[in-house]
Specification:
- This protein has helices spanning about 1-5, 10-15, 25-50, 65-75, 80-95, 105-110, 130-140, 145-160, 170-185, 195-205, 210-225, 230-240, 245-265, 270.
- It has about 270 residues and is an all-alpha fold.
- It has one domain (about 1-260).
- The longest helix has 26 residues, at about 25-50.
Amino acid sequence: MAGLLGDIGTIEWLERTRGILNRRERARFFAATALRTSRLTPRMVGMRLGLRGSGPDPSELTLPDTADTRHILEACSELDPMLIEHGYRTYLFGKALGIVCDDEALFAVAFLHDYGLSMVESLTDRDFTLAGIEVAREVLASTSFSERERRDVADAITLHYNPSVRRRRGDLQYLMHESIHLDCFGFRAWDLDPEGIDRVVDRHPRHGFIVRTKPMMQLHARQVRGCRALPLILGGIGPMIPLGPWPRVESAEDRAREKVVGAAGPSEEGMRS
């Protein structure tokens, strides 16, 4: 799989190509995605059948509270709550997976990696992760992060969008890819305590993350021809979403919200109409 991807998705590749795959790269990226999907399918089917696994409890972990992490949170304060809560869950799941990384760098990637997703409607000439990296660089310029740390954060942001990341590319890049894909698709959920995962989601609700981001990615694929979105979806990652835990969780959240709204009765505006 690593040989198929080569340098696709790295910060160096993104800066050279603006995130646009050429024909040969599209074929390689599609093949790597299909291979990753085939390897994970048995575990995803098992999870769908109720085999949830065990491991560290992510709900027992705490978030770093430093001047730099507060600055990053402030920079993200105007994002949709869906993306902010995704950042919280991504950090906690990543921390629980047990690979030692700098906490502040982990936090930065967790909260900034999808910043560009909020801009997809206006993007026509570059991958959304490039737009996100431009924001991340501006945000991190006001932190104590070293130049190397900023580079690693940027690399992790663009690599998260790949079907896989090699551990030797860097612990931060590898770990954040795994935790982001856990929160997007359910991959590696079997390596954590299932009740702990449930508690994290209770504290940081999904706000329809799957339902709402899927059309964003489809729009991105149409508007930025040659970006990684289409081969990622067609290679099998998209069809695997129903096998994961999140569609059911998000449906339950929707039913709970409807129940609360129904119990509250008609709004004042509704009564006036």
